[in-house]
Amino acid sequence: MSEKEIKNLEAIFEAKIARDEKIEPKDWMPEKYRKTHIRQMSQHAHSEIVGMLPEGNWITRAPSLRRKVALLAKVQDEAGHGLYLYSATETLGISREELYEQLHSGKAKYSSIFNYPTITWADIGAIGWLVDGAAIINQVPLCSTSFGPYARAMVRVCKEESFHQRQGYEIMLTLANGTPEQKEMAQDALNRWWWPSLMMFGPTDDMSTHTEQSMKWKLKRKTNDELRQQFIDQTVPQANILGLSIPDPDLKWNEERGHYDFGPINWDEFWQVVKGHGPCNKERLQTRVDAWEEGEWVRDAAMAYAEKKAERKVKQAG
Amino acid sequence: MSEKEIKNLEAIFEAKIARDEKIEPKDWMPEKYRKTHIRQMSQHAHSEIVGMLPEGNWITRAPSLRRKVALLAKVQDEAGHGLYLYSATETLGISREELYEQLHSGKAKYSSIFNYPTITWADIGAIGWLVDGAAIINQVPLCSTSFGPYARAMVRVCKEESFHQRQGYEIMLTLANGTPEQKEMAQDALNRWWWPSLMMFGPTDDMSTHTEQSMKWKLKRKTNDELRQQFIDQTVPQANILGLSIPDPDLKWNEERGHYDFGPINWDEFWQVVKGHGPCNKERLQTRVDAWEEGEWVRDAAMAYAEKKAERKVKQAG
Amino acid sequence: MSLKKHDFRENGDKIDYILTIADNSLILGQRMGELTGHGPTLEVDIACTNIALDLFGQVRSYFQYAAQLAEKSCTEDDLAFLRTEREYKNVLLVEQPNTNFAYVIAKQFLFDHYHFLFLNELQNSNDATLSAIAKKSIKEVSYHKRFSSDWVLRLGDGTSVSKEKIQKAINDLWPFTQELFEPNEAEEKAVELGYGVDIAKLQEEYKQAVEKVLIESTLEVPVFEFYQRGGKKGVHSEHMGYLLSDMQYMQRTYPGMKW
Amino acid sequence: MSLKKHDFRENGDKIDYILTIADNSLILGQRMGELTGHGPTLEVDIACTNIALDLFGQVRSYFQYAAQLAEKSCTEDDLAFLRTEREYKNVLLVEQPNTNFAYVIAKQFLFDHYHFLFLNELQNSNDATLSAIAKKSIKEVSYHKRFSSDWVLRLGDGTSVSKEKIQKAINDLWPFTQELFEPNEAEEKAVELGYGVDIAKLQEEYKQAVEKVLIESTLEVPVFEFYQRGGKKGVHSEHMGYLLSDMQYMQRTYPGMKW
């Protein structure tokens, strides 16, 4: 293609985005757009899959049948999200195997929040309330992002996530209104998940890369710090209803800003976890790799069977 | 060797046994004596090793620290018994590897009693009381059997077994004097272990082989039925002290015989388990095979290191 | 807390019968739930979790009904989490471990075919609630049966590796199938009184259905002389204790709390 | 039942300190006990069980003492079995699973060297009971240290397979070693009041001792920037819950009974 033709395609592409029209897989797109989307969407898919593990840790130990069923359904939803996010990513010309390979080799990232352990039942509530809550704030804008398959996947994801978030909050509410031991369990979970949840919005704006480009492509509509503030402003009153304290001595309402002020985030911890040295990074990845490797013979069998079946059909037809 | 020489050696050998002198590994012995002893002693060693498993099943779940320590020590003693019974068997010119191979391939037997599951804590008490109790009755006569290494090993084994038996009985006593739930647990364990314990003495005399030869070699001094009767006569009063009922409606004191009469034993079950189809045969064997195979690289390493060390010594000396 | 027959008084037999049915779904569901997040593909992971969800849904219907029948006030969770090991009535088959995916499938397959025939009959129970639960559940179980049979087919007629694995799993689990058709006391009583299924009568049809799939899967039908039993009388395998210690952990550690 | 600091009143700090010490032996002993009956040789099986026995023996001395100090009547078993996960103070290192024999040895090795140095200092405690326990235990632990170091040597300088396995285990467990030398509140207080050990001071000697064995074993000394911590504050790994659900099973299921 001539340089002029490319310029022309780029112009059409940018105009489309500006008009809030969707880019579809068959449409021309700049290589950087494709690559950025593969990276972000697969990272998102991986997060769903790895995110099944901390919650899955409590399936066999859920405290009631009702909670067990809800937890199973939730983790299953996450598998579903992973599935359609992978499918959406595949429309960009990369195979599921390649995507897994990137995850398993450590080349691709997933959300760092899933590298923290779930050590009490209240963590299941806290994850629903805080982690899904933060995820929704990150994800709602993506429902109108420029890449069609991603935007459509996100509509479905967000709908289910808000359900999960309410469910998580309800677990916290039950605990907070329960025995002193249960309330203590809820407070403890809030203490441990609060700061990692704030880190889910990424580094502060001055440290963040890619933001401008992502804004243009509607992969981002607000900055990390704006989203983080939104999360805090939304969550603090919810904690108050629960009668739980946010573990931040610097937290207080700033009348002037119309927002909560909050204390400094431990960015050393953030980077330690991002770099693979969180409490569970090693185990999470190993668990995924093990599941994949132990499943190889099963996938091979399914493939071999499908081939045999197809051959037989051909023979019968012939 | 001429036939006459052999006859002569046989005569010396038999005279020795008749005089209650021990046969030692370096002594001449008939091939059948050697083979029979390898079979019985290794079967005995295997029983100790496989016998570690049903009790080992409760180490992580023992209900108190005191009981956990006692159970660990007991299972360790069994490993010790296995160790010196294997060593004693090795003096007959067979290697430990060959003996394991016989166990792992299913060629060698071990006591069928260990193919029943331990499903409550009371089973640990019942095994000590009944299974070790039956074992002692089988084994005490072996302390004066003709083959020296076996006899000496059995002296040590029997001493520890009686300690285990008392310990098991004390567990039962604690349960029997505990809450109704605990007493029920004890009764349930007695119900499940009683009949398999009676089977430990082997088939009835009219069905039993080898007995005459074994008597001559002092591998046996009483018949299966005599030993079984001794066990019952000894155990019934113990059950009475516990306030537990023996699960045999036909059990009653026979004034004339001076023994307890008892009901028919389910020999179908006996043979099913002996033939490898008891509740845990498969798992017990698999567990041993797994431990052995998973340990191979460890044994290889120890061997390689020992060789390197020896070489270095030679070099230093040279 | 521990619930015993004498707590149930006049409905004791029926409650025991319901537990005999529901414990199978409970323990099989618990095993299936262990797989969630660890399946060989995402699609299979989702399908297996679905089966667990169906099974727990059935468990809740059964236990809620049993709790209603009990004179002593109790809840579905008391029944699910607060019995001792000897009080669970599930067959040994369903508590067997997920040694590998072949065992997951073989266990499910061998149970599903029974479960389907069982529910088919339970629809005719003279107890309206049991009949209604059966009507609702049989649709789900008919899907389970198709899923597990399809996988037996894929693994049996897939690669030589998968064939060997599924054959070994089928062989290892086969000795647990006989217990499915041997009624315990509660089941005998239930047939007598018309609310239960005469399970012994299902065996022939079961045999045919299972063998048909095995043969289509190019697998051998195991021939066994000896079978394992005990679960229905509460005598379980050594696997059961560990399963329960996890499953009951919360209810045991924090007694009497609402979650 | 759940024991909390406020149940201990004035001796609360000392009791917390004793738990911080004893929980390491408890959880490491529990892990070692899992191996019994499954060791690579009978001799190793016996030796490992011996280590478990020593550790539980120490636990009993510590907990009996702590129970004496508690104002609320409690027993060694209450302390061992009736706390919630967040109340156990053991370091993360000792709760790590027995992935294979290399992990069993590496875990024991990395802990034994610390344990030895720790007990050596604890002998000087101004608390006569703690000092006496230390004096008795250090003989045992000196044997543990020799056993685990000898095996690091054998595996490291054994075959290429064993070298790879023990190196991986050492690397994987290394990030848990820093926590050994970071005092929790109870430990700080204990140093202040003279009954505790200033663990931070042990680190250099530990490093030298461990590195010496690794080098002799032809293994590489891991270099890490990031370490894991949390156990001492009761924030454990996901392995801990499963360990506890088995360990506490009987006491939780049958509360208040004598065994």
Provide a descriptive summary of the structure in words.
The complex is a heterotetramer, with two copies of chain A (318 residues) and two copies of chain C (259 residues). In chain A, helix 3 packs antiparallel against helix 6 (148-176). Chain A is built from twelve helices and two strands. Chain A is globular. By secondary structure, chain A is mostly helical. In chain A, strands 1-2 form a two-stranded antiparallel ribbon. Chain A starts with a helix and ends with a helix. In chain A, 43% of the residues are buried. Chain C has helices at residues 5-8, 12-35, 42-69, 76-81, 92-95, 101-122, 128-156, 160-173, 185-192, 203-216, 238-247, 249-253. Chain C has a single domain (5-253), classed as Ferritin, core subunit, four-helix bundle (Ferritin). Chain C is built from twelve helices and no strands. Chain C is mostly helical and 259 residues long. The chains are: A mainly alpha (318), C mainly alpha (259). Chains in contact: A-C, A-D, B-C, B-D, C-D. Chains A and C meet through helix 2, helix 3, helix 6, helix 11 and helix 12 of A and helix 2, helix 3, helix 4, helix 7 and helix 8 of C.
Which percent range fits the helix content of chain A? 55-70%
State the separation between the terminal residues of chain A, measured CA to CA. Answer: 45 Å
Instruction: Supply the number of structural domains of chain C.
Output: 1
- Quote the average pLDDT of chain C: 95
Assembly state here?
heterotetramer
